[in-house]
Amino acid sequence: MSEQKPGPKLVSPKAPAPVARPAPSVQAPKPGPAGAIDPPVRPPVAPAKIRSRHRFVLWSFLLVVVAPLALVGWYLWTRADDQFASHLGFSVRTEENSSAIELLGGITELSGGSSSDTDILFAYLTSQELVRRVDERVDLRGIWAGQGPHGLMQGDPVFAFDETGTIEDLQEHWERQVSIVYDSGAGLIDLRILAFSPEEARAIATVLLDECTRMINELSDIAREDAIKYARDDLEVAVERLKTARQALTEFRNRTQIVDPTIDTQNQMGLLVTLQQQLAEALIELDLMSETSQENNPRVAQAQRRVEVINKRIEAERRNLGIGTSDEQGEVFATLVGEYEGLIVDREFAEAAYTTALAGFDAAQAAARKQSRYLAPHVRPTLAEKAEYPERIKIFLLIEVFLIFGWAIAVLVYYSLRDRK
Predict the structure, then answer these.
(1) pLDDT tens-digit profile of 104-152?
(2) Which residues pair with 37 in a beta bridge?
(3) How far is CA 343 from CA 212, 257, 321, 371, in A?
(4) Please, are residues 377 and 209 in contact by the beta-carbon 8 Å criterion?
(5) Taking Cα atoms as reference points, which of 212, 224, 230 lies closest to residue 371?
(6) What is the largest CA-CA distance in the chain?
């Protein structure tokens, strides 16, 4: 074989030499187990710098959250006095008497709650009148002004009361110190009274119970007085009606000189029946004489005369009884009897109305002699042994949550508005 000679080499133009750059300090990969190679280690990131916005957020947190919480904690645990609670609970009960028929039938209700009275009492518990009455009896201004080491004079304006305040201020402080829970379904009212000593709290609760009892008794007295008043008015009307009916009957008897026209009517009817019997006998006798005697017989004329006299008497008696014709003069007996019966009906009705009114008045008086509406306490004023108020931890946590949420919302709103610019 012939040996091939290499041809001429093509020489490319010479490229510029690359600039030498420092190689990054990258460690060579180290072989791991089973030939695995670890990723290269990057250089560490430079530390973050505190900018102005970070300082703003920090200082706002300190001013808005930390400082107020420190102030609240200092006030609650160093300046606020301990308060004791006295609890009280009651309801309004109404006695209802059942009739004899209801007792026999087994349908009775001895007592029940009156929701309307309880609603009135609930409104009275927050009234200015009750606050004034309790203040006059136990000096609420002095009790709630605080006699402890941190009273109002020593710098406790939050939980203590200023004795120089008006009755409106005292009523507003009453709503803070007296908590009322009203169960409208069961008709129960529960109260919690706060004071700076357990004895003062129980004293306020005791006076409060007395004033509520007095108010309920006044409502009961008003209801009883109304019931007696209505019954008394009905009785007076019935008495006047009975007097009028009896007076009219007396005037009738004086005018007619007849005590009982019904008795006279019975007598007149008996006389009329007798006359009719005599007339029938006289007619029979006249007929017999007319058939057996001569025409000029004086006995026949006498019998005819007797028949005429009896007929006239019968007509006169009929006129007296109102059976005659309409042109007779004077009052007929039937008219008198009708007037008398009307007067008797009026008198009987007046007597029945008087009896009913008298029974109602007696029943109203009997109901007035018993207490139909009363205050039934199921929790009497208690005496506390430990100060549970103010609830420092609860108040501190609530303020803390409120401040943190308020601060966070304010910061978010601020940066949201800033990003939109």
Answers:
(1) 344 334 344 445 788 888 999 989 999 999 999 998 988 888 765 544 4
(2) 31
(3) 55, 15, 19, 44
(4) yes
(5) 224
(6) 221
What is the second-level CATH architecture of the domain 78-97+112-232+371-410? 2-Layer Sandwich (3.30)
CA distance 310 to 177: 106
pLDDT by residue (tens digit) across 236-289? 999 999 999 989 888 888 887 777 777 666 666 677 778 778 778 777 777 777
Return the residue matching tokens 């931890």.
393
Quick one: 400 exposed, middle or buried, by C-beta within 10 A (0-12, 13-18, 19+)? middle
Q: What radius of gyration do the chain's Cα atoms show?
A: 57
Interatomic CA distance for residues 343 and 340, integer angstroms: 5
- pLDDT below 50 — which residues of the chain? 1-15, 17-20, 23-26, 98-114, 150-153, 323-330
User: Is the distance from CB of 142 to CB of 204 less than 8 angstroms?
Assistant: no
Unique residue bearing structure tokens 């490229």: 15
- Distance separating alpha carbons of residues 135 and 150, to the nearest angstrom: 22
The token pair at 408 is 């966070």
Phi/psi for 37 (5° steps) reads: -115, 125
pTM > 0.90: yes or no: no
383 CB-near residues (< 8 Å, 6+ apart): 86, 198, 199, 202
